[in-house]
Specification:
Chain lengths: ~240, ~240, ~240
């Protein structure tokens, strides 16, 4: 059976978290009989809650869109299956990590939300990947309503491939099937699907520019600063 | 909590009905703390059955496509949430009003149908909005089969966001969430989603031209005239 | 009621099988009151398992993509409803025949799978039609996982319009509705939907070229030769 690598991702996204995931992809790609990289949370009821807010308050994070989009794009080109094993909360960019993964398995207690609009932001880099996974309308509703979606709701509209508190059997079954695939056909398949729908250079440019613009607005900077100093979320105003 | 405005729409679509909806949108946009415009039917088991057939028989209605498309397009750009509260029949353009709305709540007795093909027409202006809401295939099947879809079927494929005989609690909950959103982020969000998929200038032109062409064919003119004089639907032939 | 024509398709796809389906479409189009062509399997638990592997091993089948894509494309332009009545296994190109059909009715025992990746191939010509029917993600998951989907699973994500061991009542009801449609509006409708999404000339060219490229790789040629001589499938290695 093919080797399956695992990475416990950080609970929030910043340059270090992104570098760690790239490192795990490097290792998976350098391991010839590896077919699967599993991303999992830290076991604390959190998969990933998105942007590291303290970091974004301290730095000008407006150029972070390109880096994050680039990571998700790598999921859609690497000759490995990327599996998101979600157990707990996924929010913002954490939903993006799941949406861009090839397979998403989630425990019952998992929940997915896009709270960006409450900050005056949009999940710019998440949306192209989310739309291709769940279709236009559910991505739109999650963004607009900002309300969380449970694992079983998510399964109904393809955000989640299977609800499982212990997905090891699912991952083993997948690994068994993928053992039989050439590495090159996974890469060919991913390239082919990219040509079919939505992940164009134009969409990438739109996503990165809009993220940068929104992150630089005074209202967003103020909310991030308020959070950094008082740990007060915008919806607690 | 944000102000919620309501409009009882007319049961059929003509220039006056479209002007009334624009008027309600004007008022909603001019009311700073308004976040939601709810469109509802007249309480007579009808949400909206689409084109005013007597009117279309009397006039050359072939230029009506641009006006109607423009109204649906405004739903997708206004910095307000447009909610369709459907209680009863929605047909043709009435399905378009629902599909282009941000949120659709429908009572159990509601039904959605696209009977255009029976007239020799197509729901040209409805389809781009319906496809982005329900995906390609369900929009295709509704158009081709001309068969009605119930509220609960519609919920399964995202035509309806929630089935509720009394959606007031849902609307209040939504209003509570949307109170926390800046007006500008709603407009930004809608623009961003328009860039993601399907609502291009080219699609609009295709829709408006094809509606005009079909409305001008002798077969369609004859069916409209027959309806105006004898109240006989084409499927009763 | 409109005339319904039927064709028992061959269990595998080659030039002769494609010619037979074109012949049935010719006949349906030449029959003025015909509205429906039903494609069914041979009653042996197989709808169609895709490419004729012995044939592909013997010939250079790398130019077969254009012919097959052209057939599926004809389904999306013919002024007739094409109905796939699936009773048993549909695999590879057989899934394409179903996906490109206007309506798909499947018996409980039916199953749909895309095993191409196990051969080092991709369902290049199937995917544009499958994506428009089931959306991006399910087409992607079927291709990547190579695992079969049951009729009832397929119904949940629109691969199947209705699960029915005996679909005659469904087909009769459809024929009754379609009797009331002009032939020309079916053609107009299909053209209009083609303009809405995905079936562009560019997508066709991408599909045909990639199929040809993959079919010509030494690994694929070897697997086809192994199958032809030893009836051994690649996943039995």
């Amino acid at each position: 059976m093919a080797t399956t690598l695992r990475l416990k991702i950080r609970g929030t996204i910043d340059a270090a978290a992104i570098a760690e995931i790239h490192g795990a992809l490097d290792e998976a790609e350098a391991t010839p009989d590896c077919r699967i990289l599993v991303l999992e949370g830290g076991g604390d009821g959190v998969f990933c809650t998105g942007l590291n807010l303290e970091g974004a308050a301290a730095d000008d994070a407006s150029d972070g869109g390109a880096t994050f989009y680039g990571l998700l794009e790598r999921f859609t080109t690497t000759p490995r299956a990327v599996v998101a094993q979600v157990d707990g909360r996924a929010a913002g960019g954490g939903v993006g990590l799941a949406a861009a993964s090839d397979f998403v398995y989630a425990s019952e207690r998992s929940a997915f939300s896009l709270p960006e609009a409450l900050w005056g932001l949009l999940p710019c880099c998440v949306l192209p990947f989310l739309i291709r996974r769940v279709g236009f309308q559910k991505a739109y509703t999650m963004t607009f309503s900002t309300q969380p979606v449970s694992a079983s709701e998510g399964e109904r509209f393809n955000l989640v491939d299977a609800v499982a508190d212990d997905p090891r059997a699912l991952i083993n079954r997948l690994a068994y099937r993928l053992t039989k695939l050439d590495e090159s056909i996974i890469a060919d398949m991913k390239q082919y699907f990219r040509k079919m729908w939505i992940l164009s250079d134009e969409v990438e440019e739109t996503a990165v520019k809009e993220f940068s613009r929104l992150m630089s607005t005074p209202a967003v900077r103020q909310r991030l600063a308020d959070y950094a100093t008082e740990k007060r979320f915008p919806w607690e105003r």
